[in-house]
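Lab intake sheet, docking and co-folding queue.

SAMPLE TYPE: protein with bound small molecule
LIGAND NAME: pyridoxal-5'-phosphate
LIGAND FORMAT: SMILES
REQUESTED OUTPUT: full 3D complex as structure tokens
PRIORITY: normal
SUBMITTED BY: R.K., bench team

The fields below were copied directly from the construct record.
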Amino acid sequence: MIPVNEPLLGKREEELVLECLRSGWISSAGKFIEDFEQGWADYCGRRYGIAVSNGTAALQMALACIGLKPGDEVILPAFTIISCALAVIYNGGVPVLVDSDPRTWCMDVERVKEKINRHTRAIMPVHIYGHPVDMDPLLDLAKEHGLAVIEDAAEAHGAEYLSGKNTRAPAWRRCGSFGDMSCFSFYANKLVSTGEGGMALTDDPALADRARSFRNLCFQADRRFHHQELGFNFRLTNLQAALGVAQLERIDQIVARKRSMGQTYNRLLKDIDGLKLPAEEPWAKNVYWMYGVVLADEAGMDASELAQRLKERGVETRPFFLGMHEQPVFQKRGLFIAENYPVTERLARRGLYLPSGLGLTEEQLKNVCQAVHEVLS
Ligand SMILES: Cc1ncc(COP(=O)(O)O)c(C=O)c1O
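RESULT FIELD (auto-filled):
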């Protein structure tokens, strides 16, 4: 079976993790944490990094940092992982959904405006499967309405967005460099992985201080066991950060490999009529975190049938996200009742992703394409 994802760990990871073991710095203090935080912030073009235990925690912490209050609304895409909605709910807020753009699969920025009202406090754009959200109009909208922006760049390490594309001085900026805070996951299937892990980035020193405090139970510097706020234990370990530091040293190589895998898939699958391939808008550099495909009507099957037939040929796949409005857990809580998001619904039923891990060989990639051709041609 060709696995949907396999991480690629090298000698350098082994060396740095062993250094932690030998020095005894295995918990949440140690130099690799700060090195990883600063290194990742620098890479993304941000001032401060606050490493946490996973990407969901980063989102939850970021919303706590902007002071989300019970009843505050946060606008996010219907087509995303549940972490985004959970982060809002755990802060007492209300998730408000918008549908996706059918090309990029990211939140349709045009739709965001319709959902803004006097309860809206923040917008959470999510760069889906490695393709950036169209950030300029979204940031303009946030500015116009005084809303915070919490960027979810969990799936978009190294992806880039052409900022100011309608101005005289457009500039490529990395995903994770936008808004008040940006959040990352370093789960095993991410471009940079610490096994489990996450990070929030910001340029605002006050938000960075709040995040460091929230991450560590809101201990007070002067009176350690006195607490003024409800904190979390979201600490990352030095051992995990060591993996991140090792991978940051070869981040350009990692991003180049992912882009080249995506481009090879594009080339080998482009002739299949029934298949829609991932977009790369002229203003975007897609890192193809997961190489997703969407079945057109003429394919004559849905994603679960395609998944089954690829499995029979030794290819593992994963279905696309199920929209937040279709999640039983939210429906049971009376959320999103009678809401419809047709693009999201279609993606959920007709989309899946193919093996995309850094451990995938060229030969495996070609075999995957061969299997897709056999099933669909
Ligand atoms: C867009 C997005 N946000 C948040 C997360 C949550 O990250 P984690 O699994 O590290 O909690 C993920 C996880 O894959 C994700 O894809």
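REVIEWER NOTE: The CA atoms of residues 59 and 84 lie 7 Å apart.
SIGN-OFF: pending second check by T.M.
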